[in-house]
Amino acid sequence: MIIGHGGNKKDLAKAIGCDVNDIIDMSSNLNPLGPPENIEKIICDNLVKIRFLPEPDAVSMRKGFANFHGMDHNEVVAGNGTTWFIYTIPKALGSKKVLIFGPSYSDYRDACLMHDIAFEHCIAKESERFEPDIDELSRMTKVADTVFICNPNNPTGSLILLEKLEYLIQKHEQTCFIIDESYLPFVDQAHEISLVSKTRHQNLIVLSSMSKIFRIPGLRTGFLSAQQGLVEKIMAYYQPWSVNALAQAVIEYIFDHPENIEPFYEKTREYIKAEKQIFLANLESIQGLQIFDSHTYFILASLKNGMNSRQFCERIGQHKILIRDCSNFFGLSDKHVRFSLKERKNNLHLADLIKEITK
Fold it and tell me: 3-class DSSP state for residue 21?
């Protein structure tokens, strides 16, 4: 397991001698608007449910997700976050050779290491601003039986459009594609890009996170969508009561009010669009930093002033702001950092610090 996912607020607070609540976390990829209204009230109202076992297969929240996406709930699995699926899929599929499109989330690699499964990476090039090379991905897929693609990708923010993904899926029918759409709700017109309801493909698995967009990572909830044959393979490794009672209550509430979901997505996207524009405008004249285009609210940057990522993060951290050192992403280096946007005041404060440190 990689040490260094975002969000180590306690370590930074201890290092600089402040209260953990004083740390502004701009390292973790979570909705800057916070959870939707009423979510915390729903948790409090349902505390009594911790006295009883939840549904063993979380069928009610599966049905809510399926109804929202217009699909059969038997094509959906509810899990303890998408991470559980990532670590389970290669074993459940009997994968022999995995291809990981990167630089990307380390758990795809770690899942292969856990099960002693061979893997390799198809790395997008910094010289091409980390834009996906579909031809190269297709070429390398020829020798893989399983492919992981994060779309939009973490940490680069790159996006592969629907027609290109379907081209790959249809061209390589003997290869199973796992498309991780954890960050897709943050993208404009996400429903036109999503593969969630495209379960006509027999070689497709789609992962959907509730943690990021609804900012409830501590509840650990996520979904897997696929044809029933693939679902049955995953369910062979499913543990009863994998989703706790409070998580089930919250997700059931969200899908019991589908009329609120898309407006919440739109509000989030509008907010991110405005804040990203302002943040990037404040960094336009900086010579010591290269910013890469992102389709979502986190932004990857490359340091060009001789400072490495650890030094840069430490300098920013002295001001009680936590950002992501990306040196432990395979395919990146100790010159890469990532910023996850929050409230405007904090975004502008970070921009000012970056200008000061990189001048």
Answer: helix
